[in-house]
């Protein structure tokens, strides 16, 4: 297969279904050999379908592409190193990693357990670190590579009852930026995608009001396959000068997201006291405050 990823090798984690599956299929159609990683876990992280990766491999091979399956957990550093090893042993190199694997254990913060916080952070944030760190040595040896991480507007903006998921996803954005800075000298790029799509991850959204029902209907119109073109592009040589960015993909819309920067400042020559902070600084800075909004408040218009 010819395309933007001809002769390249891509590892896609959590590729047994949803967004990961569509990225793996699109990468293969663009010419890449693909390592399809999937633990075969439920939405909460329990093992339930160990053959998920094999099915996607079969789909790729049926279309004339090349792929192998890997069933390791991204939360395990040794398993992440094995994913990279599998790619190199099977195809001779590794050119791109898509950190897509994830689980959800939603709950309001005052009810969230340590175990549920830990499990989600381990898969999303530690998982992105583990696979990226394993790939970094190979990329440095090859003098090039691409890392594509799935973040979320739950972390970039905010959402209710997702403290664990939001913390991990915002952490991934910071991790990606640090990787972009540290590995630039070896021509390694690192970018994030915040995907809007109806998948297993979003299917857990509770529908307990007319507003939530309307939101879910909008999400159901956004297909996982819509995310794949951006991921394929970011893995290609056409994106060599694109790094350290956070993108969002929403149906037929693509966005580049802002990153935290100072928006307003105040100065007092003699320094500050708690009283002058209250009387001077806060009134002056208040115009720059961010509202207590959620992702749906910011992306309030219908998908295009």
TrEMBL record:
Identify the taxonomic lineage of the organism of origin. Bacteria, Pseudomonadati, Pseudomonadota, Alphaproteobacteria, Rhodobacterales
Start and end residues of each Ketoreductase domain: 8-204
SMART domains xrefs: PKS_KR
Q: What species was this sequence derived from?
A: Pseudooceanicola nitratireducens
Q: Know the name of this protein?
A: NAD(P)-dependent dehydrogenase, short-chain alcohol dehydrogenase family
Please name the Pfam families in this protein's record.
adh_short
Q: Belongs to which family?
A: Belongs to the short-chain dehydrogenases/reductases (SDR) family.
